[in-house]
## 1
Amino acid sequence: MSTLEDGDNEAALAPPPMSESPEEKFREFLAIRGEKLTAPRRLLVRHIFNSHKHFDADELVAELPSDAQGRKVSRATVYRTLRLLVEANLLRELRLTNRTAYEHDYGYPSHDHLHCTECNAVVEFRNDALRKLRDEVSREHGFRASGHRFVITGLCPKCVRARGPRRRLDLV
Ligand SMILES: [Zn+2]
Ligand SMILES: [Zn+2]
């Protein structure tokens, strides 16, 4: 089992080799639907696959660079492109308690998450026992599992420490 946190050292889970770039995969997905990889879509897919992290749509809008004319990709385009990237299996949607986050699906090993409801930290982990349990439960019900959602919510160690004394006072 390995863990990694949002932030600088996000590369702890070794990605499997990618046969095609995310941009190529997205172009093919769009072509099947009769759509084009427009300049804003290309900018988005490049920007998103530049670094692995968990992000929500508003964070993405805020950090997108403007073009030479100072124009930014519109919020509507960002939302629609995110939906398309999820449909194309390039991004995975992560429903957390108070927000919907996105992360790379293509070229990144499957894993589960812990979510701190106080500071919003997202920690990744892999656990084979959990996967076995999922397959076992599926078999019992005649299912063939293709995926699952499992998010542990609670407080991260930092927030537990920050809250500890106050909580104890609350109980007095
Ligand atoms: Zn926290
Ligand atoms: Zn993740």
Note: The beta strands are 3-5, 91-95, 100-104, 112-116, 122-125, 151-154.
## 2
Amino acid sequence: MKWGVYATGAIAQGFANDLKKVNGAVIVAAYARNEQKGRTFCEKYNIERYYNDEDAFFNDPEIEAVYVSTPHTLHAEVSIKALIAGKHVLCEKPFAMNANEAKRVIAVALEQKRFVMEALWTLFLPSIQKVFEWIQEDRIGEVKVIQANFGFSGNNDPQGRLLNPDLGGGALLDVGIYPVLMANVLAKSTPEYISAQASFTDTGVDGSTFIHFKYPNGIFALLAASIEVNLINDLVIYGEKGKIVVPLFWMADEATCYFEDKVEKFISDESSKSGYNYEAQALAVAVNAGLLQHDLVSHQFTIELMETLDRIRTEIGLVYKQDLQ
Ligand SMILES: NC(=O)c1ccc[n+]([C@@H]2O[C@H](COP(=O)([O-])OP(=O)(O)OC[C@H]3O[C@@H](n4cnc5c(N)ncnc54)[C@H](OP(=O)(O)O)[C@@H]3O)[C@@H](O)[C@H]2O)c1
């Protein structure tokens, strides 16, 4: 797969690094609004072409797939431009600012017959795949309760993307999406009941959000997200017969299953706390198979995830300008 990278910030660096592990994958071009940053990125990752003009980037015939790594507020707009230019798209999380935007992107992808996927890399990690396998094998019995936190003490720059509402700032969309997506995946549905509370920063976004879900199948989830405090960032899945614990679950490199007085620990071969290669590999396999979506992160999953995030935002009273359009 020949990739083009749109925006060359922090996560694009991680992606470019990990892409080296994917057979047949190469970044052929990158777009960045800042020429110096763009050129430095291209030199560092040995990328042939740098573009300062986004139309020229989208019209580069060699690019097959675009990786969108801008702040959240641009995800939908940039993905749509890439799809209309005939490229497949891997878009960073959250896929869009709300479910309406997400649906628009997916409609364009279907019209253009191009693959699009939200970059929910966590689901492709070997440790998380092992967790799904243990549940499938009935190690812990029926899942009853899911607990997950993602909280860290972020920077205090009011203009930066974490705190700035104009860049989609706030804990829920930046890190809360991970506990929420794991709960939806593990419960195999969306919540029938949601309650949530948040503390707000001076910039008007959620600094910390605490969430309680009840799913139609009776599963409960207790989730927390913060860009203010370092939480204990474990995913714990409680079943009738045991439990599974995954430390730092969004970038999991290990998982432990406690069942029938036994303990089984899985440690991933890669302990580097990265793994963007798995999602990139998954995209290539799906595109080569002629698919327009991946069954692990389907269009429906992404729309339902955005709808769940929208419902949480309604509960906590967090509105972005994209919601008013
Ligand atoms: N999957 C993961 O593990 C993971 C981890 C971190 C972040 N993310 C997601 O990735 C996205 C980017 O996060 P990040 O941490 O990489 O942020 P970042 O370091 O701030 O990078 C954002 C990039 O977008 C560019 N940009 C900003 N506004 C732009 C505009 N109007 N037009 C064109 N380019 C623009 C920035 O360019 P300048 O340098 O010129 O400002 C920068 O290159 C976020 O949506 C985040 O949720 C995912």
Note: The CA atoms of residues 149 and 233 lie 5 Å apart.
